[in-house]
Amino acid sequence: MKTKQVSVFLENKSGRLNEVAQILGNADINISAFTVADTSDFGVLRLIVSDPEKACEVLKENRFSVRTTDVVLVNSPNRPGALSRMLQILSAEGVFIEYLYAFSMDNDTAVIVIRPTDIDKCVEKLENHKDDLLGKNGHYRL
């Protein structure tokens, strides 16, 4: 499923990540997943939140540089080989992935956040290959 991801540009200094968490918490916005990529001078905090538009609004009000990006969320079996199976299909279909990250919902399910260069192609190819992704015991859901 396509969803909006919030990206926040942060200076690499103590407390900045906590500021974002406090601002979002005070605005009653839940963070479901996040990842941080950094360089020596700054970081990019990528978030899946309960209300992306409101998150951008409150963060901009607090002088953070923010933008939204479309990403694909895939519910995947949380077991060995599931990620590889999905990545092999996307690679064979010519879907280039800029980055991805994942989190576990429980012992059975992981959610994979994918940022492909062509989001519609990624969704189409995953939907076209649902049977291939399922395997014997698997379940995938966009």
TrEMBL record:
Residues 71-141 form the ACT domain. It comes from the Bacteria. It holds the Pfam family ACT_8. This is Amino acid-binding protein.
